[in-house]
Write a structure and sequence with these properties.
Elements lengths: L1 H12 L11 E5 L2 E4 H7 L1 H38 L2
Antiparallel strand pairs: 1-2
Helix pairs in contact: 1-3
Length: 83
C-alpha cells in the first residue's frame, strides 16, 4: 500500500513545466527576436540535468516524509500498548 502511495506522489511531482511558451519572444536586438525556444534549445542538456536534480530532491523529500510519518505512527502504537 505504501509503495502505491509513493508511486502516486512521485508521478505527481513530475518535471516542472516550461516557464515560457515555445516561440515566445524574450528579447529583441535590432528588431530581431530572441525566442524562448532558441534559448531552451541551446540549454537543453543543462536544463534537463537541472530538472532531473529537482525531481530527485522532491522524490527524496517525499520518501523522508513517508518514513517520518510511518515512524511517528509506530511510536504512537507503542506508547498505547505500553502498560
Amino acid at each position: 500500500m505504501i509503495a502505491i502511495w509513493t508511486l502516486l506522489l512521485l508521478l505527481g511531482l513530475g518535471f516542472p513545466a516550461t516557464l515560457h511558451a515555445a516561440g515566445e519572444t524574450l528579447a529583441e536586438v535590432d528588431e530581431v527576436a530572441i525566442t524562448s525556444e532558441e534559448v531552451e534549445n541551446t540549454l537543453a542538456s543543462q536544463l534537463s540535468k537541472l530538472e532531473e536534480q529537482i525531481y530527485n530532491l522532491k522524490r527524496q523529500r517525499v520518501e523522508a516524509l513517508i518514513n517520518e510519518k510511518l515512524l511517528a505512527k509506530e511510536a504512537a502504537k507503542r506508547r498505547l500498548s505500553v502498560p
